[in-house]
Structure to design on (99 residues):
């Protein structure tokens, strides 16, 4: 791997790690705020803290809906990245077959 590819891979790794960190920290908070604005106050214990403990507790117990909520932004970014790469690869293959 040359230096440019190594730098690119390192940049992608840092970007992915940052997206994961922000997703884990911000998504539950934004879900709480959005839910409070749309449907009203959280009915569980301790307001936002209770909500966050519920989400992270469910994730710790392996409940997949909690993981989907927490990781949704990362999953969306990964899916779009894959789709874009596949489209570019298909375009490159089509261009090569025309030559």
């Amino acid at each position: 791997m040359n230096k440019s590819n190594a730098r690119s891979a390192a940049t992608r790794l840092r970007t992915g790690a940052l997206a994961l960190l922000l997703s884990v920290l911000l998504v539950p908070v934004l879900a709480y705020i959005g839910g409070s604005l749309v449907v009203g106050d959280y009915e569980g214990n301790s307001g936002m803290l209770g909500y966050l403990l519920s989400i992270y507790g469910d994730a710790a117990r392996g409940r997949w809906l909690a993981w989907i909520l927490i990781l949704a932004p990362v999953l969306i970014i990964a899916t779009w990245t894959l789709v874009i790469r596949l489209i570019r690869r298909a375009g490159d293959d089509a261009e090569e077959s025309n030559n």
Summary: The radius of gyration is 19 Å. The chain has one domain: 3-98.
